[in-house]
Design brief:
Layout (H helix, E strand, L loop, with lengths): L11 H15 L14 E5 L11 H19 L3 E5 L1 E2 L3 H14 L4 H4 L1 H15 L3 H7 L10 E2 L3 H16 L3 E11 L4 E3 L4 E17 L5 E6 L10 E4 L13 E3 L6 E6 L12 E4 L5 H10 L25 H14 L3 E14 L7 E10 L2 H12 L4 E3 L3 H10 L4 E2 L1 E2 L9 E4 L4 E3 L15 E3 L3 E2 L1 H5 L2 H4 L8 H6 L2 E7 L3 H16 L4 E7 L1 E3 L16 H6 L1 E2 H8 L5 H11 L9 E2 L3 H10 L7 E3 L2 H21 L18 H22 L3 H28 L12 H21 L4 H8 L9
Parallel strand pairs: 1-2, 3-4, 9-11, 15-23, 22-23, 24-27
Antiparallel strand pairs: 5-6, 5-14, 7-8, 7-10, 7-13, 9-12, 10-11, 14-16, 17-21, 18-19, 18-20, 25-26
The protein binds one RNA strand of 75 nucleotides through strand 8, strand 12, helix 8, strand 13 and helix 11.
Length: 753
Amino acid sequence: MTDRELAKAYDPKDVEPRWYAYWIEENVFAAVDDAADPRPVYVLPMPPPNVTGSLHMGHAMTCTLEDILVRSFRMRGYNTLWLPGIDHAGIATQTVIERQLKREGTNRHQLGRERFVERIWEWKATSGGRITEQQRVMGTSADWPRTRFTMDAEMSRAVREAFVRLYEEGLIYRGTRLIYWDCEAQTVLSNLEVENEPAKGELFEFAYQVEGGEGELVVATTRPETMLGDTAVAVHPSDPRYTHLHGKRLVHPFVNRTIPVITDGILVDPEFGTGAVKVTPAHDFNDHATGKRHGLEEISILNLDGTLNAEGGPFAGMDRFVARKAVKKALEDKGLARGSKPHDLVLPRSERSGTIVEPMISTQWFVKMQPLAEPALAAVRSGETRIIPEEWTKTYEHFLSNILDWCISRQLWWGHRIPAFHCTDGHITVTREDTLCRCGTCGKPVTQDEDVLDTWFSSGLWPFSTLGWPAQTPALSKFYPASDLETGYDILFFWVARMMMMGIHFMGKAPFSRVLLHGMVVDETGEKMSKVKGNVIDPLDLIHGATFDTVVEKALPGAPPDEALKKFKRAYPSAAQMGAGFPAYGGDALRFTLASYSPQAKRIPLSPRKIEGYRHFCNKIWNATRFALPFLEGAQVADTPPAATLLANRWILSRLDAVTRTARQGIDDFRLDEATQGLYDFFWNELCSWYLELTKPVFGGRKEDEPRRDDDAARETRDVLAYTLEAAMRLLHPFVPFITEEIWQKLPRPGTA
RNA sequence: GGGCGCAUAACUCAGUGGUAGAGUGCGUCCUUCACACGGACGAAGUCGCAGGUUCAAAUCCUGCUGCGCCCACCA
């Protein structure tokens, strides 16, 4: 096959890897730091995927949308930086490695901290960050040599610097608070990492005897074991049923203490339960606040692993759930149980481990949020940063207006160690140095704080830490603030809000002028993709093709294949009639599909049939070119449209102009769906169905006995067709970069004639 | 308890104060000269329900119904 001939059907497998290699070789994704570079700048920080991650549909969406923006600006002549990276993902990664150790019959404590962390680095070197390889299959045109890992030395320096400055400014403090504790991972969690899940439980009632044998007071609870930490029972001040008990004391049935009856109009709703509330200040947020109001003792009853400590009296050593049953039984045995009824409740679960978290009193590091939140709110209110789709602005405002202090310490080993040192006298020295020997206050020997920082602390610095901050590098001055930040709406609070706060605080300017948010990719019926549901699709299977056996094995690992297949086909009705599997749709078809969904949709139901439709579109592009190429020999293509006299030629040039504006507008407004629709319609209906058909009689030569024409009309049409195709390839390129590159390289274009 | 959003053709979704749109699917026909990953023609919607504003509403407003998401410490 010569240069100017094309295969009859488009085969992405042949084309795509070839051009990716070419782009890398030609270094076309690189941004330029040089202050003297006169071009305008477009900067897009890439959301760093977890080091443990592998490409899923959400990543595919992110890569696609961002690559479209980036390629588009690059083609417009911007000095474009798409900065990629990887997140160390503290708790997620630690969990992965701990599971490995468990399989090997050991654990991190046997290994020791230093060895454990080494082990994670080893793992990272071999299998961590595989996802960045997979991103390349999507055509991701990031400036790869600038890839940052949040645990790199430079990133760590930035993290320490940020911590120290916030500490010195009084915005980071250490405090003893009621926090959420994950008993399995054995670490504190921030509020955002706790998911509240509705559940069916019971409301159990039991009686406290009044001291001196004057009757009883019945309370209701969903967590009977917490009664071991009760330090009061509260009633409503104006509840006539309990007036006679005001000021009395109650006898604890299991531990040697009496507790007061207190009145509290905030905690107690007389309508609920018995109207009397047991108060456990150390294990419940409402009770904690009540305890503060009344000066109650806070008795922690739990060990860090969720078993009961010595305060549990006869129940000490039991797991919290075992203790729950045992306490109920013991209350029954003492004749104090007063029955139970079914009750709908909300269980707080750890986002990561899935276990029910326990409120516990603990000393942790916090960031004071309000002083940081206010400028972040102001930046959006003033329009310095715009959130698109705009409806998210209210959600952002609501979050930042009601924000609580951020607990940033984690009892993990994998992460940025907190740069604080403790001496035996209890002084704390916070330092930028790697290590410290003497207390800054008294000079005694010190040890470093055992804890690490929340992963999101380092990612909150991403827009500037990746550019060399705190050093004043050329990259930092060139590329901060970024132009856009594009990501899924699910991390608006976790990540975007925190970058806004940190960016403004440390750099004095909001980190980006626009925040672009897309929805969650879900299955075709609208269900969230999950391994449990068996509806996960690996984007690479759509690109490369895969039998349903393979697809289903990944969707529902370990399940019987026919059962898994049934589930899968229920989740993707349009795949049900597809025979044995997915054909190789190619990266372009998948990208065009993902871009075609409206970004304001919160749920993006992935439809295999839709991908198929856009694969057909790619084939259409291919064949249109295949038809046109033989007629383009000797075409003159300039940067501006050729002068046209024939109606058809003038018409297609005007349509080209219109679609150019549609595509441009769609990209600028982050309405890529409108851009894809416009491009599809232009190419298929206007260019192929109408214009190409109209050119046939002008060119002639289609039948054996008909000569190819070479008159003015044919020459004008040739030049217009060449110009139009070349321009169409450039318009389509950000969306479907592979096929357009393949074709464009074969087309006559400015400077090649 | 607060907040946000959605309801348009069989499916998935755009859309606009002035005669209802796309893709896919469906029906009939066509392997004819770029493409059957194609072409031609066609069927298909009381734009959730009820009010209101307007010359005009599917589009704006109010209420209702249904669905979804987020935030929140009711024992």
